[in-house]
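Illustration: MFS transporter.
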Amino acid sequence: MTNPLETRTDGAVETPSAARPATYSRLVLPAMAANVFLLSMIQTLVVPALPLIGQQLHTSATTVGWVATATMLTASAVTPLFGRLGDVYGNRRIVLSALLVTLIGSVIAATTHTIGLLIAGRVLQGASFGLFPLAISVLRKELPIARLHHALSITASALGIGSGFALVATGVLTQHGADYRRIFWLSVVLTVAVLALAAKALPRRAGQGGRVDYLGALVLGSGLVALLLPVAQGHEWGWTSARVIGLFAASAVVLAGFGFLQARTRQPLVALSLLAHRPVLATNLASAFVGFAMFSVFLGATFFVQTPRAVTGFGFGASVLRTSVVYMLPGTVLAIPLGPMAGRIVTRYGPRVVLLGACVLGVAALAAMAFLHGNSVEFIVGLVLANVAVAVAYAAMPALLVTHVAPHETGVANSINSIMRTIGGAIGTAIVVTILTSETVLYRTPAGPLALPTEWAYRTAFLLGGAAFTLAALLAAFGFKRSGH
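Result:
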């Protein structure tokens, strides 16, 4: 029986001995997991600190929102390009280049005192998003097949760990209104460490050669920026505004043009047949839904636990520090051993079964958060289970893609999957913020009137996350051929 990891989508069979070196560095896996941890941390680090950044730079909420949006827009433009560059020129060169650009952006963000330069630094930090597909490509090329599922799960689970760590670190570093630049100095230190580890661990191997479709990358990046920009700014601009509607229409036209262009390019950036392949399509859609659920958990929980119970009758009135340590830290700590555990489960039962189980757990966790939040203990349990669901779901996805795509398509396939996760997270963030800012009640407090989200607004946000997990579970159940796990 042919190992699915050795089977290409066109039916040809890889020869493991030809595709992989006889020996490999044991630092490759920790280096690639560290890269993924770093990009996830950079993505999430600013989210809890946006109000503080606005206060310290005397900037409006609309302007400071670009600190979060900037990296997402860069990611949409560079992620598929980096995946292809790694295949053509060699992963080591592109990984180190992406880390160097990330480091420059981190230094700018840590030293500037103007919002414009801060946003510019965040634009450069967005290069880190290209590290995920590059990491998956490195693992596929460098590790023996017997260790691959385990390694992919550990690396992918670092996505959830990095996000959880970022929420905790931001809370600790910015408590009592401390200088927000501390969080960017943290990213500087970690980027230097990851850069040194990657330089030592990654072997100097030539790429497979070929052509890079720069025009296709430009068109795809433009279409994705036009899609993500109104998603990220829609709650500020107005969902029915001319800018939002115009950008959505432009994205549809540009992305359709991208498909037309790729169908007529000899060496396209993305083979359309790859995107249409049922298991790849199902994995990408599941990634978007889990990304949506992840941010409905993180944002909804962060705001909910800080809601003053004495005023509203719900919430826990937690400080930023208590939010980070008491509520967010347990899920982050538990996610650390989940990577190796998920890897063993994926190897034994297959990634489809693991993805399905994680999404079912996510549905139960979000339902518990929506209806069982009367005390801290039960809410923390629900939050921990939601973190577990996210970490395990993402641990299964690279194995699903590697099972169903050819080696030379690994970088691009995981690039698209990474973009889908970004799109899902952006949509989740936009919808949760819209719900929490539109469903409010004006409370009278000693400090004056205070508008806060209703309990039903939080319930809605958590239930929408549960619905996203449900859709991902249906994809895991029915979107793959059973013989391919």
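Reading the tokens back as a structure: Confidence is low (pLDDT under 50) at residues 1-19.
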